[in-house]
Structure formats: C-alpha cells, structure tokens
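Protein in question quoted for reference:
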Amino acid sequence: MRGRWLLIPLLVLLLAGCQVVLDRGEKINQPAPPFRQPLLGGGELNFPADCQGKVVLLVFFSPDCPACLQELLALRDQFPAWEQRGVEIFLVAPESPSVLTSFMQKYNLKLPVVLDPEGKVGNAYGVTGIPLSVWIDKQGRIRHQSLGWGPGKQQEFASWAAKLTQE
C-alpha cells in the first residue's frame, strides 16, 4: 500500500516534466517571427506584411516524413474551405524545389510552399520536430502550435480555423 502512494507523486512529477518538454519553445501570444523567403514556383512571401488581417497556418514539413504526409493528406480537402474563410496556409520545407515540386504533384497538393533551404524560418519558429503546425491570428500573434499527427488532430485544426477566423 505504501508503495502505491509513492508512485502517485512520482507519476505526477513525471507527467509535469513531460508537459514542460512539450511547452518548451512555444511562443504562444507572442508576435510571429517575420521572414522574407522565396515561394516554390516563383515569387516570395514577406511575412507578416503580406498576410495582414488574415489568420495564417504555417505547416513545417518534409516530403520524407510519413506523419507529415498523413497530415497534409488528411487536411488537403479542408484547406480550400479554410482559405475561403480567410485562412492563409503556407507549407514550409528545407528541401530543393525539384523535390518539393515532385511531392506536391504526386499528392495533388495545391498550397504555396515557402522554400527554407537554410532553415532560417524553421529556426525562427523553434522547429525541433515535424510536422509542426503554427496557427497565427489576425494580429500576427502565435496562438497555437501542434507537433505531430494523430487521432483528433483534424478536429483540433478545424476548431482553431473556426475560432481564429471568428475573432
């Protein structure tokens, strides 16, 4: 019996420690770091100037990442509806334009891709794992970060899209 009571505080401390690890690097309610980077296919994104007054979803990914592919395929059909409601969606990746073009065509993904070959944008946003999705509100503040893909994420994303477009 005494051993069980010792396990409860240990479990609480362990879970608290996991939360600290999950929250490290998040900049919730802080201004999103600005950047100016080329887009796949031409042009550039000057963020946040080009997106003022819009909700922005940045998805940091790699074509070699199975979880990234799952996320992009699961959300592919929702992206047009979100864009109609005022959500600007940008994928961010460090790979070469030829690799990204092939990936986007293969999976019929029609979203702008920010080229980040030197990892400047990823570093500014503290990316330590992918897929990392960053929701930015109309005032340019980071409101939510989500790492990985799994059950419930599609509903979580739909909720953030609705919440931030209504604010």
Summary: Strands lie at 35-38, 44-47, 55-60, 87-93, 113-115, 132-136, 142-147.
